[in-house]
Every structure is written in structure tokens, then in C-alpha cells.
Amino acid sequence: MRRVLSSAVVVVVLCAGATAGAQVDDRRDLRQEPATAGEATEKTPEPKQEEDEVGLPPDAPIDSDAERALPDYDGRGEDPTTAGDVLIWIPRVLMSPLYFVSEFVVRRPLGWLVTAVEEEKVVAKVFDFFTFGPDNNIGFAPTGLIDFGFRPSVGIYFFWNDFIAKDNDLRARAATWGPDWLLFNAKDRLTVGEGHELTVRGEFLRRSDFIFHGIGPESGEEEARYQATSIQGGLLYEAELWRSSEFRSHVTVRDVRFEPDEGCCDDRTVAQEVARGRYPLPPGMDSGYTVLSQGVTAELDTRPRRQPRWLPDGSDYVSPNASGLRLQLRGEHASGLSTELRANPNAPARDHWIKYGGSLGGYVDFAGQQRVLGLSLIADFVDPIDEGTAIPFTELVSLGGERPMRGFLEGRLLGRSSAVAQFDYHWPIWVFIDGTFHYAVGNVFGEHLEDFEMKKLRQSFGMGFRANGSRDHVFELLLAFGSETFDQGAGIENVRFVLGATSGF
């Protein structure tokens, strides 16, 4: 059929050209004066045609590999160079390393790989191997995670869509790196209405590679290890509101136990550092704690959703402009459930504390193609409710890990409050992968930022790639750096490399 249509198009074009040529010839013959007998008819010489850059008249045929000069249609010549044309090279040069890495290290090799995978039908074969069920709604996948500074882990991720009932999804993950590195978490999520979800979740975690550097903005660079075992479970409610605005509420019971004399990786343990007199035993590490927490997060986000969850398969939805403002307020109340005897007779029978904070950010999407530049201000606090309450050190405000200042490991920065200013930029590299870059300045401090000083701020910066699809099982590649405080010289203190899939509680 394509050949027939092509032939028809060619025939029509040739006929039209011939007809137009005949009409032009007829008009030329009508304009020409008949020559009288004996008169010599002199033809006016035709003006010489100008030659283009390749030495050919403008209407002459050219070789297939040659380029014809661009005609000056409006007769005004080329546009003059403006100040904007010159200044635009400044961000281009500054962002050129990011462009080079994303374009030639990630996008193009990934494009070649995706093309080869599609030609060999690898995706279909792998999908058929790892999924089963009546609608391929049940499946599993091997997982792994490397986070320099911690032990690696390997495991398996399992999903079951429409588990037992429609719109009820089950997710589970198990991972390990020996008997002292065990993780298992599971969640059952029920959609109770468009944009409203209710989740039951639980997790068991035991690790001997946790780190502790001390508490406060100038905690030492030398790390110590300890082992922790936690069991937690609870309910989570999530609601999608106007545009990208959201509301979340949770109730969780959590039990945590510590082994300060256990560690790994040939590093000193917390118990050894306490014996050396470097710092006192962290609050809560001697006996552990059991706590009931209730929290809410309200987020006002003026940006349209990039990929609404209700989109059907094969939708031609185009992600909208991502410029806008985001305001997030969060709070959590925690109440101890154990009534153990206290060394201090004036201490309350149960510990109570409250955590609260907020984030304010502005974002600009260049050209409306999800190339988003953002600036955020982030602050968090934790305060005891009753006098004498000892807040466990793992419940203090923290920076690093999945929290802001990602150039530091989880647990590196602990305090009663924190303040961070963060500049970030993310851009699409492939269908499900975004490039990310961040630069942040901040630190943890004492109660209500009481010891805040500019010279005590630290820096965090890095870049990487992150999947933008699944929220339950996120693949990430990150290279980031954390610095000393400005007062200490702002030298690089930590290099963090992350590769693999993560899934939190």
C-alpha cells in the first residue's frame, strides 16, 4: 500500500509540474512579438545567475552530500549578536559538565542499550520471567544496594497488584548481608477513592554498621559503630489534593534496642569511645525505647503533577511546566510506652516529645521541559514536652542519608534543631530517569537553633541519576560530598557513593 501511495504522489507531482511548465510556456509565447520578415530578431541576453557558496547557480541541482546556501528571504541579513546571546554562554559553560555526563555517559549509551534491548525483545523475556498471575500483576525482582560507609546488601523485591481485592496492592522487600544485617518490610495499600490511599505497613531491621559521631554542629569526624534492632508497624493515610499538594497522616508503634559494644568493619564501637571519654553514652542507648508516634504532613504545591497516578497505560499525557512554589509543614508527637525505673527520681514515668518543621521552596522550569531549578529553605526541631524527658538520640533531628545534606551518611549529623538552604537542579535524561544536582549549606544545632553561627555551617554537594517511576522501589546512582564546618576549613570530610534500589518504611 505504501508503494502504491508513493507512486501516486510521484505521478501527481510530475503531472502538476508538467502542467505548470506548459502554462508558463504559453504565457511566454503570448507575450512575445511576432518577428517580421527580413527583420533579425535579437534576444535580450539573460542576466548572469549568481553562484552560491558551492559554486552553483541557486536553481542548479546539487550533490546529495552538498548543502545549498540559506537564502536571505527578508533581505535583512543575519541577526546581530546581542548581549543575551553572549551571556547565555555563562550558564552553558557552568552546566557543561552536567550536560556532558548526562548526554554522552548516560543518555546516548542508554539509548543504544534500549534500542538493542528492544530489538532482541529482552524486556518481554525478562518481564515474562519475573511476572506471573492472570494479568501479570504478580512479580519479583532481585535488588542490591551499595552505600559507601555502610555494608552493601542484596535481596528481593515482591509486588502483587489487586491483592485479594481490586485496588489493593501488596509490596514487600527482604535484604541481607549476613546474620547481623537483616531487613524485611511489607505494606498493603488500599485505594479508597481517587487520590486517597490507606496503608498498613511493618518492618524489621537489624544492622551492626550504624554510625555515631556525637551530637551537635561540631561533632568529630571519627566515627564509631553500634548495632540496632528495630521493629515497627502502623497505619498511613495519604491524600492527593490540588495540583501537587498532599496530606499525610500516620500512627506508628516502634521498638528499638541497641548494642553499643557491637559493630563492624574494624571500626571502634560506641562503647569503646565512651570508655575513652570521648562523649557520654548517647541518650536511650542503654535500655532502648518503645514509643507510639502520631504525625501529619501538609504540603501546598502549586506545580501540576508530572505523572498523575490515574493515567492509563499508553496515555499521551505530556508533563506540564514544573515552575511553582512549595510549602510543607510537618509535625509528630511521640509518647513512650515503657515505664522502666529511672535513675533520676524527678524524671517522668514516660518520655514525651514533639518534632516539627517546615520547608519553603521555589522552582523554575526552563522551557517547560522538566528542567527545574529550585531553591529551598528547610528547618526542623525536636522538643521534650515534660521536663526531664530524655529524647533518644535516634529520634533527634538528623541530616544526611535520605534527608537534606545528602553528602553525609545517615546518622552523621544529629541535634535538637537544623537549618538548611539547598539549591538543586534536575532534568530528564530518559523516559524514567532524571539527572540530579544539589548544593546545600546547613547543619544541626542546639535547642531552637540557639548556637547557630554562619561559621558552623557545612556544605553538601553532588550529582546523580534517579528513577522517577516507582515510589516503592527507587533506583538511584549518587556521588556526593560533605564538608567540615567553615570554621574548621570547609575541607571535604566525606565522600558518599550510592548505587542500587532503596525502599524505606
What is the strand and helix layout of this fold?
Layout: H1 2-31, H2 83-87, H3 89-119, H4 122-130, E1 131-132, E2 138-147, E3 153-160, E4 168-176, E5 181-193, E6 196-212, E7 224-240, E8 246-259, H5 270-275, E9 289-301, E10 324-336, E11 352-365, E12 372-384, E13 397-399, E14 413-415, E15 417-430, E16 433-445, E17 458-467, E18 474-483, E19 492-502
Antiparallel strand pairs: 1-2, 2-3, 2-19, 3-4, 4-5, 5-6, 6-7, 7-8, 8-9, 9-10, 10-11, 11-12, 12-15, 13-14, 15-16, 16-17, 17-18, 18-19
Search tags:
16-stranded antiparallel β-barrel; two-stranded antiparallel ribbon; 16% helix; disordered N terminus
Description:
By secondary structure, the chain is of the alpha+beta class. The protein is built from five helices and 19 strands. Strands 2-3-4-5-6-7-8-9-10-11-12-15-16-17-18-19 form a 16-stranded antiparallel barrel. β1 (131-132) and β2 form a beta hairpin. The longest helix is centred in the N-terminal third of the chain and has 31 residues, at 89-119. It is globular, with a radius of gyration of 33 Å.
